[in-house]
Amino acid sequence: MFRRPSARSAPAGPSEGAGRLDLAPFRRLLGYTRPYAWRLVLALVASSIGSLLFLAFPVVVGDLFNNAFGAGSTRALTGWAVDLFGGSAGEGIGGTTPADLNAIALVLIAVFALNAATTYVRVYQLGHVGEGVVADLRRELFRHLLGLSTRFFETRPTGEITSRLTSDIATIQAAVSNVLVQLVSQSVSLVGGVVVLFVINARLTLVMLAVLPAVIVAAAVFGRRLRKISTAFQDELAAANARAEEAISGIRVVQSFTAERHEADRYGEAIRTAFASALRRARVRALFVPSVFTGFLMGIGLVLWYGGRLALAGDLPPGDLITFLLLTVTVAGSIGAFTGLYSQVQEAAGASRRVFELLDARSDLPEPARPTALDAVRGEVRFEGVRFRYGDRGDAWVLDGIDLVANPGEVVALVGPSGAGKSTLVTLVPRFFDPVEGRVTLDGVDLRELDPHDLRHHVGVVPQETLLFSGSIAENVRYGRPNASDEEVVAAAVAANADAFVREFPDGYGTLVGERGVKLSGGQRQRIAIARALLKDPRILVLDEATSSLDSESEALVQVALERLMEGRTTFVIAHRLSTVVDADRIVVLDAGRIVQVGRHAELLAEGGLYRDLYEIQFRDVDA
After folding, report:
1. pLDDT digits (tens, 9 = 90+) for 447-503
2. Whole-number Å distance between alpha carbons of 356 and 6
3. Which end of the chain, N or C, is less packed with Cβ atoms under 10 Å?
4. How far is the C-alpha of 226 from the C-alpha of 234, rounded, in Å?
5. Is the distance from CB of 458 to CB of 570 less than 8 angstroms?
6. Do 236 and 277 meet the contact criterion of CB atoms below 8 Å apart?
7. Can you list the domains of the chain with their CATH numbers?
8. pLDDT in tens, 522-549
């Protein structure tokens, strides 16, 4: 199946490590900031300077009050301004002049201006880093997903995958762009604030710090609970998105069975489950915020009570009490920011684990370290003792002992009852799966020894249900060869019998086909797919019941285009219509995963057996 990440690098599951903070995902996330390292450093420096300036504000305000009321001398921080701007316009209380107050006010203005400048630098640079990291992570995740095997996408709902690309990575963005800088800036504010508080009054500082242990314990308890609930919420929201994706992509089936209410109820139930988790998360936050805030208020209340007693006793100037109060609020804010960061980290932990789980997923189709080069491909495809089963669908063999050779340029038709293994057999040709036993070769080389991209460059597939992308007709044809010229696109459409109907549209080849080609008919979509395959010009062609869902008129046009497409190419046709079977070089009859008959149409009819039974059931009316 899929190789899981190693124990050392794998992120924890939803319950694993739920009682502790796992920093491994965040160390890994920091690796994505390397291309923006100088911007991150600049943001860190600006944030540190801003934090120091914010610490200067209470000190300057305290000096302003002490000087205004003659309660103390000017501190070194504002002394240079008093010396520079101070005058003798008249003596005030305690020898302080109005010019001294003016100088201190100028310091305040300078602090505010510098703080505004550092805030601008920090916010802009962090925004650049955060958006850049998220864009890089989304690109890497999407590119990685495209390289995984078909089996991966069969076991993962599309909505779940898109949820990882959108909501989970958005949750990570705040952690990447904010946590590190906030950690540094709040550390500067906390440590610097506590140091200044000790300088002002050590006893009062100890009283204030007595409240901290209770606040930290509360943050840890609530943070652990919040992490569990947030992980569950993200999982439930992804499940809801998966259901919505299914219903929207199959809207015609939903409406044809009048199942709108059923799908709405299914999605509504999934949303109600996610909503219940969201409410649990809201309740935890609602308890967490006031609990921590109450602890802060208790600390501030203690400072006011004890500091007021010191001021009344003359042991603490009133300006210093104001400075102490402002710094206490700053320290409390820093502690609150740390608890908020802890919650943010806890919420992002679940999202980052899920994203990295996808990034760590490995395809069950390993690429060779030194792939064999494909030069001139002749197109001989050989199945040697091939046995295959899906594993997750039971232990029965879907293909059992297949030995088959398709010579270069030969058309091989595959027929048999439903579930015989026809579609599974052709999926082995472009190596969407590997056989469990035996091997498949191209020109004598095991497909597992080839680069999958190189192999698939030489294989073209036209399925029964054609998927077009929501662009123009020209873009969909050019999908077979992106660098093709407009003339080559038109030539491929002409060969596919598509040019005539394309030119009937007002916008011609610029006509938008809609999501999955919904604006075109089935026959038109099929001819666009054939033009796409013609432009790719593969050596090997796989036609998976390419005309079975078309009406007679569309089938005739598509059949002519297919005959042009098959010229000179090794072709596997899962046959459903008589015309394709009659013209095949060989017809291979499958039943229960085994080859039971091989031959041309007339030979198999004369031989009898399963093929003639299928012919009599399916083809007699057409032949008549």
Report:
1. 999 988 888 888 888 877 777 888 888 888 888 788 888 888 888 888 888 888 889
2. 12
3. C
4. 12
5. no
6. yes
7. 24-360 (1.20.1560.10), 391-458+541-551+570-624 (3.40.50.300), 466-537 (3.40.50.300)
8. 788 888 888 888 888 888 988 887 665 5
